[in-house]
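Bug #77: duplicate submission created two jobs. Keeping one. Sequence:
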Amino acid sequence: MKPLEAGSLTLRLLTEADWPLFLQLHRHEQVLQYVADPLSDEQIRQRFDERLQPWQAGDVHWLSLVVVETHSGTATGVCGFHCLELDADSALTAEVGYLFLPQFFGKGYATLALKTCLDYGTTLGVKQWQAVVTEGNKGSGRVLEKCGFSLIERQHNGYQIGGKFFADLIYKKLA
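Kept job's structure:
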């Protein structure tokens, strides 16, 4: 897959050389605050290795793209999606996700990267998009809404982080 151009950003496939970025994203307390409990380095490495697998439309493992500032070449985070299922009408549904380093929060990078991922996935036949956000993660909710997602469901006590239960907020968007 050739890199995707997104204005001031470029999205390219995750490679072995991106391990330090991936590790940093999965160790940073501020990044993980509404994502998950900290994982061991071995667990993080397993997730990384899974995301290095070759990907094609319809795969259930993640298409992981590194989001890079085009002008500086600085990697800012990751964005991607994985396919969930075909519905009764053979319409493909995919779940999106993204993680960015805190110094890039509030710059519009997540919105720009997500819009680019959505456009790419739509060209591959994705008809419906889904995202799950932990309650309290207002920034991610705003990103999704800017990209045309709507909050459709709130699952009380859907997820536990640090021994505390949070609601899962389910967002959907039609392509």
